[in-house]
Amino acid sequence: MRRTILKSAAALALAAAFGHPAMAADPVEISFYYPVAVGGAVTKTIDSMVADFEKANPDVKVKAIYAGTYQESIVKALTAFKGGTPPTLAVLLSTDLFTLIDENAIVPIDGLADDKQWIDGFYKGFMENSQTGGKTWGIPFQRSTIVMYYNRDLFKQAGLNPDRAPASWAEMVDYAKKLTKTDAAGNVTQWGVKIPSTGFGYWMFQAMTASNDTLLMNGAGTKTYFDKPGAVESLQQWVDLTTRHRVMPAGSIEWGTTPKDFLEQKAAMVWTTTGNLTNIRSNASFPFGVAMLPGTRHPGSPTGGGNFYVFNKTTPQQQKAAMKFIRFATEPARAAQWSIATGYVAPRQDAWDTPEMKKYLAEVPAADVAREQMKYGVAELSTHDNQRVTKALNDNIQAALSGTKAPQAALKDAQRESDRILRSAGR
Predict the structure, then answer these.
(1) Which CATH superfamily does the domain covering 11-144+304-378 fall into?
(2) 241: exposed, middle or buried (Cβ count in 10 Å: 0-12, 13-18, 19+)
(3) Do domains 11-144+304-378 and 145-302+383-424 have the same CATH topology?
(4) Which pTM value belongs to this model?
């Protein structure tokens, strides 16, 4: 026994002599689900951020898991949670807030951060989809608004001012007519405008209704207003782009290929997330502009994008490590770097005040359009059982755009289904 004690003492002395602990504590391991759902090499940026974090925090090991689209990511995260192996941390849509709360899948951030001043530093427009019931459940990370990208060269060729994007819906229609081109056989070779309808059709639609003074849901996520007159008018205008004005292709327009169509000059104007700015900047072979969305009564856009969420059924040590990563990722200089690298809107004012961001805005003024548009922003559509409610709206928007339902009938059907879903959920 004495010999064992002496050996242990010698080992400790040897370790101390070389400045290393005899028994280094194992690092806390956290899993981080991240959605790859936008253009550009965002995975490289995330990998770099994780590496920098681990270097600064050797007591934490982060396993980044790229989980696919936002829709695929929440399915995988909830499946893992119900199976007893939840991610510690995930970036999921801000609109998944009520679903995650209803599943008891996430923990409030307030208790982990214990820093109200830091939480209050995030833009209020982004926090509308991050807080409910007096608690903060998500922290804005890759947040966005919808913007219009337009091809300056094609504007010039059509006799339009390349420094002035259409400010109203009527102007957009007028511009789009001048920008739509056909060949000798009457086939369209260049569309005036493309507004994607798959995946995030509800998001595009909400931009139209927001600019028409119509909200689609209440703040508690218990009621929707899909069939209000302003909503019907907005959907009719969207349908008219195809059926009446013939400036946009009929049927489905894919979310994922819209930026590609713009880069290939198949569309002169497109609506998509500001999160595609860096992708378009890196790949456009022509000068382009970025502008606020043209509106019916005034500008308008829902906020969008993802929040950080910390999952339940994880250890206190893991939750503490996850909070440390969130604080690291949202530090002013790092949030500025993320915004510059991706095109997402840095979610805090202190990020916009950094020298890096000021230099970037001087070089790329278009990057400030999304932030300016937040003056007219509304919370993105979010309800209890949000996936099903959103699907009901998306399916009926698509039915209207494909011509199988009139806009008013489509939105009445969407409202009827939404009422049924929320009623069955006890809302």
Answers:
(1) Periplasmic binding protein-like II (3.40.190.10)
(2) buried
(3) yes
(4) 0.83
* Backbone phi, psi, residue 40, to 5°: 95, 165
At the topology level, CATH places domain 145-302+383-424 in D-Maltodextrin-Binding Protein; domain 2 (3.40.190)
Q: What would the pLDDT profile of 116-137 be if each residue is shown by its tens digit?
A: 999 999 999 899 999 998 999 9
CA 105, chain centre distance (Å): 20
**DSSP letters for 236-290:** HHHHHHHHTS--S-SS---TTTHHHHHHTTSEEEEEEEGGGHHHHHHH-SS-EEE
pLDDT tens for residues 180-192? 999 999 999 999 9
349-387 exposure pattern, b = at least 16 Cβ within 10 A, e = fewer: eebbebeebeebeeeeebbebbbebbebbbbbbbbbbbb
Whole-angstrom CA distances from 365 to 80, 303, 324, 360 are 42, 20, 32, 8
**DSSP for residue 106:** B
